[in-house]
Amino acid sequence: MMKRIVAGIMLLVASGLGVWWVYGNLTWVDSGVRRKKEVQEMPLSKYNYDELRERGGIAGEFELGGKIQAVIDRRDNCVGANCLPEADYSFETKQFKFKTDGRWMSGMINMPNSVLECAMNLKNDCSAKKVPAIVMVRGFAETAGYYSGSGSWRIADRLASKGYATVSLDFLGFADSDMPSEDILEARFEKVPELMDLLATVKSLNFVDSSKIGIWAHSNGGQITLSALETMGGYYPTVLWAPMTNPFPQSVLETIDDDEAGRIVRAKIEEFGQSYDFRQYAFENYYNWIDSPVLIHQGTADEWCELSWQQEVVSKLKGFGKTAELDVLIGDDHNLSKNWLEVVQKDVEFYNQRLGNF
């Protein structure tokens, strides 16, 4: 009788454990399916700032290429005070490619002569000759006629002549880069992790002092840069020329045309807003994450970016105890063409002071 009772108890326990195992695994499978479904239904969630901050920058493969003929031609035909004197070309210019999220992106790199021999073989030990670097983030550009270095080569030349390595990225879909996402919003959002990955990659280069990396950006590149400063954290002294700091999605909605292409973009943003929280993809909500000093130059005659935007950015950064400065240039345009040399000199002094180049 006792044996039957014990056997019955053991059978009950075994049955319970079996039910628990089956139910538990079904629950696990079900939750796994639900998580997978959520990821499939919310593919752009990986670009919200919380997710990007957790992701961080990922260093990718880096390869040096050949000369950039379009830049050489423009230097040869350059006329005016903005041209770099021949005697100041103490650096070598090459195209490069690096891997970001499994895709190749191209760009232009200037390497000072002091590290050139070492830099040309990326496996060499350059510990005794490392230099500071400035990552260059251009603004809007058309793909037609684009070349590596577009929008940044002039100021990159100036910085390289002062002993900085400069690294100008093209973004996916430009020059010799692979293609971006076919989703127009994802193609926009993925620019932030592209810059994050480039910063991490530049840090790993054998001829770059990883503790001395700054950023220069213009126009749309300014918003991308502020976003990366927030999601990366860390110390990257940053100069912004006329940055597009109108908040997202206004920055897109207020600059598109009222044509078929513009209506497609507008509809896509409206659709996005039904599933996602705009605030999680907008740099103006994460100023407290920035750990880098920021200098903004803004002309009062700029037809694309407004002085009031930059005043608000600097005010909010200072409100969080950040180091931020606004340089207002009366009557100057979006490219700061009236005060170009003066602004470049201010930038050199800004980087020298914060990166200890001299």
Explain the overall architecture.
A hairpin with a 2-residue loop joins strand 2 and strand 3. The protein has 12 helices and 9 strands. By secondary structure, it is α/β, with parallel strands linked by helices. Helix 7 crosses helix 8. It has helices spanning 2-41, 49-55, 69-76, 113-119, 153-161, 184-189, 191-204, 220-232, 250-253, 260-275, 307-319, 340-355, and strands at 62-64, 91-100, 103-112, 131-137, 165-169, 208-218, 238-241, 294-299, 324-329. It has 2 domains: 1-41; 44-355, Rossmann fold. The model is unreliable at 1-29 and 31-39 (pLDDT under 50).
Compute the gyration radius: what is it? 25 Å
- The CA-CA distance between the termini, in Å, is 93 Å
Helix content: 40-55%
What fraction strand?
15-25%
Q: What is the C-level CATH assignment of the largest domain?
A: Alpha Beta
Across the major sheet, the strand order is 1-2-3-5-4-6-7-8-9
Using DSSP, what is the number of strands?
9
Task: For the structure shown, list the relevant keywords.
single chain; 358 residues; Rossmann fold; 2 domains; 9-stranded mixed β-sheet; 17% strand; globular
Q: What's the topology here?
A:
Elements: H1 2-41, H2 49-55, E1 62-64, H3 69-76, E2 91-100, E3 103-112, H4 113-119, E4 131-137, H5 153-161, E5 165-169, H6 184-189, H7 191-204, E6 208-218, H8 220-232, E7 238-241, H9 250-253, H10 260-275, E8 294-299, H11 307-319, E9 324-329, H12 340-355
Parallel strand pairs: 4-5, 4-6, 6-7, 7-8, 8-9
Antiparallel strand pairs: 1-2, 2-3, 3-5
Helix pairs in contact: 2-8, 7-8
